[in-house]
Design brief:
Number of helices: 13
Shape: globular
CATH superfamily: Protein of unknown function UPF0759
Helix content: 25-40%
Largest sheet: 8 strands, parallel
Strand content: 5-15%
Distance between the termini: 43 Å
CATH topology: TIM Barrel
Number of domains: 1
Strand order of the largest sheet: 2-1-10-9-8-7-6-3
Number of strands: 10
Structural class: alpha/beta
């Protein structure tokens, strides 16, 4: 299934006051120590509104040494042992588990991760593409229908039950990301099928749905989410309209205007002028804001501010391919939120943490 690579996944003296999200944090895993946060960063974390959870897509990036981790470590070591150190970062109250898209995650693995983070930490987890991919590659350029597409039994077995059992109270959002569905997909039929699928899922988890086809982003899709008990995941991605346009669609639909109590889910994934592989090659090792995108940042902050004003929980997940370094993007987002959406003052080069 090589087409899946087209989608997102595939720093000074510490303040003595305890940062947000860390009341029950455990010590870092052997061999992976957390970077000591500057006093300014700890103060910024303490100023963030309650209900806002900021984080990144995964935690296993060696280039984050000095930003998230105290020293160098390999990708394999960070993947295995880095989560506890990641969760000690003052601004991180969540992390996107994108790897669930490529293969189902069992409850045991999710439970191990849940045991490594504070009680306040929450995990948004992607459901497998086995549930959201309409067709499967059959070889020689041929495709065949996917029998698991929008199949409730498959979703329960490979996504919902492990999510609930493994993460328990640390479960955040179960995300169904739908890759491009093909030019022959009918938007109304898709919305109807999605509604029937969501309606049959068990109550309890928070379900979010994210698209990669702008043609499916319709009032019928919004209605399917509302009546199916799910929320949209706003994706900052070049295949979709800009985030303000997505926000306008849902703001005018029943169930998503003022008074909506469901969580806001935003994933800032990729600049509109870059492809995934291009951004990866340009931005690696993801230790600096290589290509800042203040317009998208301000659009994200506007949605966040409106949701927080209505008392909603907010998840914002940032990918390295958004600006070059998701930990540094999170810092700039936090600064903008605390400043009330106003552009932050220029930071000291090259690190915006001084």
């Amino acid at each position: 299934m090589s087409q899946l690579s087209l989608f997102d996944d595939a720093p000074a003296d510490a303040d003595p006051a305890p940062p947000r999200h860390r009341s029950s944090a455990t010590g870092p895993a052997p061999g992976v120590a957390a970077a000591a946060p500057p006093a300014a960063l700890a103060r910024l974390a303490a100023a963030l509104p309650t209900g806002l959870r900021l984080g990144t897509s995964s935690w296993s990036f060696p280039g984050w040494a000095g930003l998230v981790y105290a020293g160098p470590a390999s990708k394999a070591v960070l993947s295995r042992d880095g989560l506890t150190a990641y969760a000690r970062h003052p601004l991180f109250g969540t992390v996107g588990v994108d790897c669930g898209f490529y293969a189902p995650l069992d409850a045991q693995r999710l439970a191990r991760w849940a045991a490594q983070v504070p009680a306040e930490f929450r995990f948004p987890v992607k459901a497998p593409a086995a549930v959201t991919q309409r067709r499967l590659r059959a070889g020689e350029g041929r495709w065949q229908p996917n029998p698991g597409f929008l199949d409730v039994a498959t979703a329960l077995r490979e996504a919902v039950e492990p999510f609930q059992k493994g993460l328990s109270e640390r479960a955040g959002v179960l995300l169904f990301q739908f890759p491009p569905q093909g030019r022959d997909i009918d938007a109304r039929r898709f919305a109807e099928d999605l509604y029937r699928f969501l309606k049959r899922l068990p109550a309890g988890p928070t379900y979010a749905v994210e698209l990669r086809d702008a043609t499916l982003l319709t009032p019928d899709f919004a209605a399917a989410l509302h009546h199916g008990g799910a929320v949209p995941s706003y994706a900052c991605h070049p295949r979709l309209p800009a985030v303000p346009v997505q926000g306008e669609l849902f703001a005018t639909q029943p169930g998503f205007g003022p008074g909506n109590s469901g969580p806001l889910v935003i994933r800032w994934l990729l600049r509109r002028n870059r492809g995934y592989e291009e951004a990866r090659d340009l931005y690696g090792p993801f230790d600096r804001l290589a290509e800042p995108d203040p317009d998208t940042r301000h659009a994200v902050v506007a949605l966040v501010a409106a949701a927080l004003a209505n008392g909603r929980e907010v998840f914002v997940i940032v990918n390295n391919k958004a600006e070059g370094s998701s930990p540094l993007s999170v810092v700039e987002l936090a600064r903008a939120v605390v400043a009330g959406g106003a552009p932050a003052q220029p930071a000291c080069a090259p690190q915006p943490l001084c």
